Amino acid sequence: MTSKLTSTVFNQGWHCNALQCLSPHFNQRPQAEVSLLVIHNISLPAGCFGLPYIDDLFKGCIDVSADPSFKDLQGLTVSAHFLIRRDGSLTQYVSCDDRAWHAGVSNFHGRENCNDFAIGIELEGTDDVAYTDKQYQQLVSLTQQIQLQYPMISLDRIVGHCDIAPGRKTDPGDSFDWQRYRQDLTNS
Ligand SMILES: [Zn+2]
Known about the structure:
Elements lengths: L9 E2 L2 E2 L3 E2 L5 E3 L7 E7 L10 H7 L22 E3 L5 E3 L5 E3 L6 E2 L2 E2 L5 E7 L8 H17 L8 E3 H4 L13 H10 L1
Parallel strand pairs: 3-7, 5-11, 5-12, 6-11
Antiparallel strand pairs: 1-2, 4-8, 6-7, 9-10
The structure holds zinc ion.
Protein name: 1,6-anhydro-N-acetylmuramyl-L-alanine amidase AmpD
Organism: Shewanella maritima
Cofactor: Zn(2+)
């Protein structure tokens, strides 16, 4: 028996199985269009996993004195729609119908300001540490659910942050196995 998805898990852009952690860092999309998926990585401090600082950063309440590397984060207003932690757990910060602030200066096929029409997924990780099996499983499942709800996001409109901000961003890095991800997306 197959288990192809037929109904949506989204309600007004919110994933019904994600832990909600509301970020004030969002605004309205200029158009309703949602047609691009951007994969990122993040860890705070860099290379440390399982800590609360990513939530705090996106919520706008990070204690910049908690680590010397955080001083650059002072006043930063960023967010993503989703975070997938090392254990595969899923957190959502911004409704997918709204514009989260993850891509920054960016360009996809000549079109700038990718935040306007993109959904951003952060993987807890770094450019050089392999992501976990649970992260790939959750990412594949989430991607399929997103594609069902936002059908303009075709396979060729799923990119890394590095692809839309080359020279400025490197995530999700060499540690991300695009071949595995794409294969799992088409085979499951
Ligand atoms: Zn990024």
